[in-house]
Design brief:
single chain, 741 residues, alpha/beta, Beta-Lactamase, 23 helices, binds 6-O-phosphono-beta-D-fructofuranose
Amino acid sequence: MRLSLRFVVPLLVALGIFAYAALPLVDRLMLRWFSRDLEVRANLIATTVDDPLHTLIRTGDRSRIQEFFTRLTQDERLFAVAFCPPETGDPVATPTLPAEVRCSDLGRFTEPAGDLLQTATGPVFISVRPLVGGGKLVLVHDMSFIARRSRETRDYLFLFFVGLGLTVALITVVIAQLSWRGWVQGLRALLRGEGLLRPSGKPYVPELRPIARDLRALIRDLEAAPRRLDEDHVAWTPDTLRTLLRGELRGQEVIVVSNREPYIHMRQNGEIKVWRPASGLVTALEPVMRACSGTWIAHGGGSADRDVVDAHDRIAVPPPPAPPAYQLRRVWLTEQQEAGYYYGFANEGLWPLCHIAHVRPTFRTSDWEQYAAANRLFARAVADEARSDDPIVLVHDYHFALLPRLIRESLPEATIITFWHIPWPNPEAFGICPWREEVLDGLLGSSILGFHTQFHCNNFLDTIERLIEARVDREMFTVSYRGELTAVKRYPISIEWPASRAATAASVEQCRAALRQRHGLPEGHAIGIGVDRLDYTKGVEERLRAIERLFELQPEWLGKFTFVQLAAPTRTRIEHYQQYQARVEALAARINERFKHAAHPAVILRIEHHEPESVYEYYRGADVCVVTSLHDGMNLVAKEFVAARDDNAGVLILSQFTGAARELPEAVIVNPYDTDQCAAALQLALTMPKEEQRARMRLMRELIKEFNVYRWAGRMLRDAAGMRRRGRLSHSAVAVARAAL
Ligand code: F6P
């Protein structure tokens, strides 16, 4: 609008000045035109009246001459007529002849051009014409009509210029607006590549609308590319993750699915308590969800879980006093479903199948059916929770091998990232599974399938090649199956850095003192810790045997070193787990019995649920942390111990069969099956100089700091964003090709 005013006002002013300057010119022009006209008329009248006038003159009848003249002046413009005889004789004139016109003084009027004369009655035009018969005819034309015409003309001219000005202004403004907008839009469209889609003059093709939308999104992505986070050069924090979600994924909705929920509401002595489960998955994902918001769908397994959810089975978490950051949507399973899906197929079938821990998998058809039913239940929950048709869904773990395919069926546009938290076995081992094709088909519904290590990615591709009809690209690490592509990638999981507990935790000295006091141990007493779910894959028996061996080989440690094993009960309905717990308890008891004469126990076994704060205190107060898993996808206990040691002290003993061993070579790496080696590692750890502890710990802390859980999640989400971009590009290319056909 302002632009229009700036243009219109000067235009009107200029036109006004122009009109004002033009008026005298118009007056002059009109006068000249009319004068010429009057002269022509005067000639005509003179020629016409010459003969009859002389005939009348010859009669000498003045009254008839006057009558003749009066008839001539009937013409409204002819005001007066006079005849001036040559030298002698009286002039004859109409009474209207102005006094200023005298026959004796005709010389002042030009001939043949007439002259304008101002008289008392107004302006008149005098034409003097010599007659053939002698004498002169004086014709006086009234010029007041010219003034009238001139006034009218001025008015018309004024109105004309005003009209012209307004019209020009209006047209100019409209055209300027249209063309500016059009130009700008055109330019934008061109920059967005729309020109390619809608060439000017060609009709809009509605079928191209989705392609145009995809291309626009793609162009926005490409525009964002320079701003894209350079993974290696940023410090990965919750904010980095949020920026990534807002930037590269444009606030895309994130839905997480796992069996284990991050908060369990339990009824204890009439009160509702909140438990945080002993789960590496939860440890890793919880801080990520706090940063991303979104919805976490999980099995509601707590005794008070139903009492605290809303009508849609949702609850905002974390619970007070922390501010709520995301939604937890609980899925309910019947006893029978849980038995078949969780305890049965997942934990008696897939779990031992994927871990080399020498426990045979058990596969039952009834378990498989419950597993499939539970996966369908979770797929429905995902569809319920999805607010868009293309959410990012993060499916976690071996409980949901069928879920990616089911989600793909209900939400074909979704980007599905499946993360397999446990090892993937070789094809021979996996081939044991009676529903191997179904499991693989389900997993290949994922856009991205992640494992902790490259070794497990390789095992997966080997399995695909061996067991189903799919095309494996070893260079790109993709599987092409049923017309869809699944990228198989390595994403070593990690933990929150810095630990949120670090800010409020007691000092290392206080933690050391608290532990010793709790267990009745003297100051300076060496403490080793193990923190695990009581799972046969964790190598707790092997660990205890190594402790026993240490005391055998280095009896000077008796009474001076105690190993505390925190063991969270897990999957206790499964016979193998019950037997395992019994064996561990018996072993600990036997070792303590064997060394009962020592001043302090060799082993303290705590089989119970431990809250993360308490575990953190053990990490900080211990001298050695022992992780002896027989097979483990990653093992986050190792990383949590290192993260807790901001004093750069303490030694980590780590099984070579964990994913973590590939990232933390500064730990004391052991083969848990080699009892002597493990005992030697304990001896090495307990006697390791502080300086060496610091050097090792620093390196390990650096690594975890750099590759924390935000980076783990960030890499997956970024790959998802890239995949969406590429998906849009190939969709658009196919659609353009189709439209062109
Ligand atoms: O190791 C696989 C895993 O899913 C971990 O991610 C998690 O720590 C653990 O198993 C939890 O087991 P559960 O949920 O059966 O207690």
